[in-house]
Amino acid sequence: MERIKNIWNVTVDELVNKVTWPSWDDLVQSTIIVLIASIIFALAIYLIDLGFDNILNLLYKLL
Q1: Which range of residues forms the domain containing residue 49?
Q2: Please, which residues have CB within 8 angstroms of residue 53's CB and are 6 or more apart in sequence?
Q3: How far apart are CA 27 and CA 59, in angstroms?
Q4: Under 8 Å CB-to-CB from 30, ≥6 apart: which residues?
Q5: pTM above 0.70?
Q6: How many CA atoms lie within 13 A of 39 on its CB side?
Q7: CA-to-CA distance for 33 and 43, rounded, in angstroms?
Q8: Contact in structure between 12 and 19 (CB atoms under 8 Å)
Q9: HSE on the CB side for 36, CA within 13 Å?
C-alpha cells in the first residue's frame, strides 16, 4: 500500500510542479491548427481516393 501512495504522490507532484500547462490562448490556437491540418489531410485523401476510383472505373470499362 505504501508503494501505491508513493506513486500517487510522485504523480501529483509532477502534474502540479513540473508540467508546463498551456495558456487558454495557446490551447485554442493549437486546436485550430490541428483542425485545419485534419481538414487538409482529409481533403487530400478524398481527392486521391476519387482519382483512384476514376482510374479503376476507366479500367473496368475497358475490360
Answers
A1: 22-63
A2: none
A3: 48
A4: 22
A5: no
A6: 6
A7: 15
A8: no
A9: 6
Residue 26, domain member (yes or no): yes
Q: How many Cβ atoms are within 10 Å of 22's Cβ, its own excluded?
A: 10
Residue written as grid cell 481533403: 43
Q: Is residue 13 part of a domain?
A: no
Based on the structure, what is the number of domains in the chain? 1
Cα–Cα distance, 24 to 28 (Å, whole number): 6
> In this predicted model, what pLDDT tens digit does every residue of 6-48 receive, in sequence order?
999 999 999 999 999 999 999 999 999 999 999 999 999 999 9
Residue 48 lies in a domain: yes
